[in-house]
Write a structure and sequence with these properties.
The protein is an alpha+beta fold. Helices cover 29% and strands 24% of the residues. The chain has 4 helices and 8 strands, in the order αββαββαββαββ. The chain has a 4-stranded antiparallel sheet, covered by helices on one side. It has a 4-stranded antiparallel sheet with strand order 4-7-5-6, with helices on one face. α1 packs across α2 (69-82). The two termini are 20 Å apart.
Length: 186
Amino acid sequence: MALSTEHQKILLQIARTSIKQGLETGQRLNVNLSNYPEELHAIKACFVTLEMQHNLRGCIGALVASQPLIEDVACHAYEAAFDDSHFPPLQSREYALLTVHIAILSELEPMQFESEQDLVRQLRPNIDGLVLEDKSYKGMFLPTIWKSLTNPQDLLCQLKRKAGLPTNYWSDTIKIQRYTTESFFN
């Protein structure tokens, strides 16, 4: 689902409005779907990432779609600003410095592989987002991670680390899913 430039602008404005309303009232924006184009009502998952002067300031999203895209954006923008446990809640003085990134996720696709080397060969740099699961361990990376981890083997090692596993860990029970994103920012 490729969004038009106009629809991207609407979603970015919804994200900023939800954050601004959070600063003013402590509540996220409640979206009235009837005020927005039908294309933005599709049930889609997204991540909203906030940066301030090229530094991460918050990132929240969902891997599985559960609500209309426009509501998902409003919800995750608010949560990225105020509920990301890695950062203190956003302050009013920071609002003007924010860059808002939205990544709309495709459905998760289970990967089939016979070994770690087979998996690494199948990874598509600058395309794949990944989810690793094994027993109670889970980690995920958005496709933007390829900007800093360009080698597929290194990326897999860091994904294992993020999941709480040693970088040299391998098991026949590891499950990997991949997905792509449509990403835009302002």
